[in-house]
Amino acid sequence: MLSDDLAELAAPVLRDVLDHPFWAGLRQGTLPGEALVCFVEQDTGHLLPCYGRAFARCAAVAADDADLVLLSRCAFETVASGPRLRAALAGLAPALGVRRPDPAAGAHHAARVQCATVTAAAATSWAAGLGALLPFMLFHLEVCQDLRARQRPHSRYVPWLAAYLPGDGARYALRAVRELADRFGATATPAETAETADWFLRGARCELAFADAALDGGPAPGPAVPAPPPC
């Protein structure tokens, strides 16, 4: 099935993400506090709103009403999670010894590239949009499952992980989107399947680049990522 083929295609990148020093440091409690703050600023201030809009754009062109409902829910939950996660870290900041995340922090280069990638994909075609959105969901869930399995019980970041790790709803949503992809793959042309795979790999590589940027703080941030034009 298409979702299995895509997951296999991205497996080497996923392994690099799971073993990345950013996520390893978060599991072990050795991650520099500024790296976590940077990650939360870029994720909640730029990536999550951008992916929410990409979900909404794909929902708007979904041929099936059930897919419209599913992707609209993904859009809502993605955007709504940003303020919640930022507030969670702000509340924990004194205990963790880190500064509170700035909701107005500018976008680093990696965030701008990732936002541009998913925005372009969602505006290109259904096949491209689906391809770019899947790694965002797949990698997030795999990372969170790995954090649960391998986090040190006395890590300084245990309280943050309790707020960050999603509930069962994320797993159900990923399964539903994978089923959507498989339905698409069953009737897609070879060109459409190749387009989905191409954008899927682009999205997967963005996940790795984002972890790199969070770990080193990234270059000087630019302005906020603008919202895409309306359909």
Properties at a glance:
single chain; 231 residues; mainly alpha; 10 helices
Itemize the secondary structure elements and their pairings.
Blueprint: H1 2-9, H2 11-18, H3 21-28, H4 33-60, H5 65-96, H6 109-124, H7 126-150, H8 158-164, H9 168-187, H10 190-216
Helix pairs in contact: 2-10, 3-7, 4-5, 4-6, 4-7, 4-10, 5-8, 5-9, 6-7, 6-10, 7-9, 7-10
Tell me about this structure.
This protein has 231 residues and is an all-alpha fold. Helices cover 77% and strands 0% of the residues. It has 10 helices and no strands. Helix 5 (65-96) runs antiparallel to helix 9, helix 6 packs across helix 7 (126-150) and helix 7 crosses helix 10 (190-216). It starts with a helix and ends in a 15-residue tail after the last helix. Mean pLDDT is 90; it is low at 218-222 and 224-231.
Instruction: Tell me what portion of residues adopts beta-strand conformation.
Output: under 5%
Q: What portion of residues is helical?
A: over 70%
Largest sheet: none
What gyration radius follows from the Cα positions, in whole Å? 17 Å
Principal-axis shape: globular
Helix count equals 10
Based on DSSP secondary structure assignment, what is the total number of beta strands?
0
Stretches where pLDDT is under 50 for at least 5 consecutive residues are: 218-222, 224-231
Question: In whole angstroms, how far apart are the ends?
Answer: 31 Å
| Helix-strand makeup class | mainly alpha
Calculate the mean pLDDT score and round it: 90
Give the SSE string: HHHHHHHHHH
